[in-house]
Design brief:
By secondary structure, the protein is mostly beta strands. It has one domain: Jelly Rolls. It contains one helix and eleven strands. A hairpin with a 2-residue loop joins strand 3 and strand 4. The longest helix has 13 residues. The protein is globular.
């Protein structure tokens, strides 16, 4: 348990340290709503043939002063969630996404697909091989368009196996370097 506390403490601190810049939260992890399998889900082409996402396998978790959105994929192998963007983003601004996952396992080698859209534009995506050790996904990218506060922010994960993902934050600024 001590190792888990140390990992969570380190990962949590990542969300609050900037390199001589002001970091501005673009999301509130208590405000996500389920968008999977609706007309508002831009990731339906990633939908697996067999899917489920039972309530209780995703939601807000509190880690000290941090609020994370957690997804347990044993009963939620495909999820898309959305909420309004909290602040304006200008073309060229850096956006950083911070996600933690425990060791990833599956009955057969596979991959997890993670993606982020703002409005109708997919702005970030990555694939994580399964199996993988636990780790953080901390990536910064530049906005290719202007996005007004209130524009939908849409986060997606699809995965094979019993795994655990935690969206820590999405911020305006680059604290990945």
């Amino acid at each position: 348990m001590e190792k888990l506390f140390i990992i969570l403490s380190i990962v949590g601190c990542i969300g609050f340290s900037g390199k001589d810049q002001e970091l501005v939260r673009l999301i509130d992890n208590t405000q996500w709503t389920l968008t999977s399998f609706t007309a508002d889900d831009p990731f339906t082409e990633m939908q697996p043939t067999a899917f489920e996402c039972e309530p209780g396998n995703y939601g807000t978790e509190f880690y000290g002063d941090d609020v994370w959105f957690s997804i347990q994929t044993d009963k939620c192998n495909y999820i898309t969630i959305s909420q309004p963007l909290l602040k304006d983003v200008r073309q060229g601004d850096y956006i950083t996404i911070n996600i933690f996952h425990f060791s990833l396992t599956a009955p057969a080698n596979s991959q997890a697909n993670l993606a982020l859209a703002v409005g109708n534009e997919v702005v970030w995506q990555t694939a994580i091989p399964i199996p993988s050790n636990s780790g953080a996904v901390l990536e910064a990218f530049q906005a290719t368009s202007d996005y007004a506060a209130g524009t939908p922010v849409i986060f997606h994960i699809d995965n094979h196996g019993q795994n655990s993902y935690h969206l820590i934050d999405i911020v305006l600024g680059d604290y990945s370097r």
